[in-house]
Amino acid sequence: MNNTVIFTQNTTETKLEDIIKSITELKTSNAKIISSLNSHTEKINRLDKKIDDLFKNFSILMEENHNLKLKIVNIEERISCIENNKTQIQQHSFEHDTTDELMDRQVRSNNVILFNLPENENGSDLENIKNILTALNENIEHFTFYRTRKIKSTIPDRLRPVSGSLTDQSDIFTILQIQKNLKNSTKWSNIHFSSDKIMKQRDEMANLRKTLQNRRKKGEQNLIIKYVNGIPKIINNTKN
Question: Is this structure's pTM higher than 0.90?
Fold first, then answer.
């Protein structure tokens, strides 16, 4: 009987120990789970904070991007305005230059320039000019003339040109066309006339002569410069 009681008591104690052990393990496991949950909760909280910070930074970037776009639009509008003003200024300048050029050409349209005329000691060129016009069979009574200023030249003692103004513009065209007849004159063979050109026309003529010279060097010997409708052009002078 006593042995039975002792066995039962031992068995009960063993079960109690197992239960206590299981409870202890459960507590330990539960503590670990709680600790793990707390750790994950902290990580989630930190992640939430980072996400909030990212959203704040993103909002700031969006606002800065919007402001930057506004500035770019403003700059583009200012550039467009400047370009429009520049175009208007250039157009006005072009129109002004064109008007000045037309006026200058109109003023010079009745002028003719005479080159290589020897200067008289008494300072008067009237008699020589009349003789030259007579040699050209031109009877021009009304004209004015004057010696131009000394021009810069590499040729020593180069003669000053004579600038003349004629009443009838057709007389100028006639003189320019028939001046080649002076080549046969013993006295006036070095004389030649030119229309009174503006700087732009002189530059264009200089470039045209340079082009003519280059083309002649390449073998095109029959080319000459001839005025066609008042415009100098390089043409072929071959006679059929």
Answer: no
